[in-house]
Amino acid sequence: MAQVIGAISLLVIACKMAGTISTSNNSNGKVSVDYVNFVVILLTVVTVIFTVGALVLAIFGVYGFETLKKEAANFASKSAIKKIDESFEENGSASIKIRHEVENEDGHLKKWMKSHIEREVVRSILEARSLRQIDEVSLVDPSAPTDEGNVD
Q1: Phi/psi of residue 148, each to 5°?
Q2: Residue 8 CB neighbour total at 10 angstroms
Q3: Where are the beta strands (DSSP E) in the chain?
Q4: How far apart are CA 93 and CA 21, in angstroms?
Q5: Would you tell me how many other CB atoms lie within 10 Å of the CB of residue 107?
Q6: Closest CA to 113 of 98, 128, 125, 91
Q7: Each residue of 10-59: pLDDT tens digit?
Q8: Which region holds residue 77: left if phi is over 0, alpha if psi is between -120 and 50, else beta?
Q9: Which of 15, 53, 81, 144 fits 20 for a cystine, CB–CB 3.0-4.6 Å?
Q10: Which pTM value belongs to this model?
């Protein structure tokens, strides 16, 4: 409603400024109006109103798109985390799959875990044995003089 009133006001002001609406009386007392100029001014005012409206909508569109993009990212993140949490619950799909792979003899994960654990245990035993042998062998001669800065 306010836009219509604003458009009419702009139209009247523009017509008065252009001198299209003549307030002088003719010989018969009627007001004369040049309709060609009136239509041109009317179309110009309507074009200006549409342009301003389009600019306002464009500003709202850009702001709305950014907000929509942020909200979509937040929603996707929250729903992905929710799905992951659900799948790792007690009877979730991921828990069931892992349990199946680990507990079954034919599970690929069980075979891999068994060989990986065996390798790690053997490596740790060898490493511990080599560290123990180094501790047993003294690398420093206890009778050798030390340079600790003590002056006798």
Answers
A1: -105, 0
A2: 11
A3: 21-25, 31-33
A4: 79
A5: 16
A6: 98
A7: 667 766 665 555 555 555 656 566 778 778 888 888 899 999 999 989 88
A8: alpha
A9: 15
A10: 0.36
